[in-house]
Amino acid sequence: MKRFFSSIFFLLVAFQIVPDDLITFFYYTDKETDFISVKEISPFTFYADNIIETVITEYEKPYSVTGGRIVTIKTKVLSAVAKEKGRSTVHIFVIPDSPLLISKGGVITSDDVIQVVFIKEGYHPDELLHELGHALFSLADEYGTESHSPGKYKHTPAKNISYEKNNIGWDMIARIFNDEKIGFYEGGAGFKTGVYRSYPDCLMKSLDSKFCPVCFFYVINTLNELTNKDIDCNTIFELYKR
Q1: Do 12 and 116 reside in the same domain of the chain?
Q2: Could you say which of 107, 115, 148, 156 has the lowest number of CB atoms within 10 Å?
Q3: For residues 181 and 199, what is the distance between their CA atoms, to the nearest angstrom?
């Protein structure tokens, strides 16, 4: 479920005026009812009036899959669709019931204009939310399966992952939520050791959990920035957890 990249394609929007407070979701599906509306998934429910959803039923398949796991994105196809049909500065393409054996989510353009989420057949809303954690909110997986530590393979840390037991951002969030459980728990980004997550359990670790306070803070901060809203994350966190 790591972030994945295809060839870089810059989407030019010169001379095109688009609203800067909208997020467009495109659903590639053969049936208009064959998807779960993101507007029905918290915390996107708090931003429903800023979300545009478009169902695309007749299209050139914007991807190819090899071996059930390797996906190649046709960035030019998606960029053309975004330019023609999009009305915002951020476009998220959701492909439900994809032929992939696992779900994936990531950014495919260097300017973060286009994100793609592949959801395997029979998905749960939390699975879509988890993949949007990668694609839209720059969050890493918080589980670890590799027995060795990252070592020289360290990548740029995601907001919810740290390679040291020191994170000023997490300290600030702990004060905002007054949550003493926010700390440093070993394991994340695919590794069992040498990397730390901020909370014992989180949606980025397991689909059986909700977003932890740290991830939720970054999710709401991003959505506020994209929609020009000022929703207080602490206030709606209790509503989200219900």
Answers
A1: yes
A2: 156
A3: 6
How does pLDDT run across 125-149, given as a tens digit for each residue? 898 999 999 989 999 999 987 766 6
CA distance 74 to 28: 14
Residue 75: give the domain boundaries: 1-136
* Spatial distance between the Cα atoms of 93 and 85, rounded to a whole number of angstroms: 12
Helix, strand counts (H, E) of the chain: 5, 11
Q: Do residue 119 and residue 151 come from a single domain?
A: no
Q: Which residues pair with 56 in a beta bridge?
A: 28
**Average confidence (pLDDT) over 204-227:** 96
Reading the block at residue 68, the tokens are 């059930």
Separation between Cα atoms, residue 52 and residue 87, nearest integer Å: 8
The model's pLDDT over 47-86, given as tens digits with 9 standing for 90+, comes to 999 999 988 877 777 888 787 777 888 888 888 888 888 7
User: Concatenated DSSP letters for 92-145?
Assistant: EEEEEEES-SS-EEEE-STTS-EEEEEEETT--HHHHHHHHHHHTT-PPP--EE
Distance CA 92, CA 6 (A): 15
Q: Where are the alpha helices (DSSP H) in the chain?
A: 75-85, 125-135, 168-177, 213-227, 233-241
Q: What are phi and psi of 54, to 5 degrees?
A: -130, 130
For 228: left if phi > 0, alpha if psi spans -120 to 50, otherwise beta; the answer is left
pTM over 0.90: no
Asked which of 136, 151, 177 is the last residue of a domain, the reply is 136
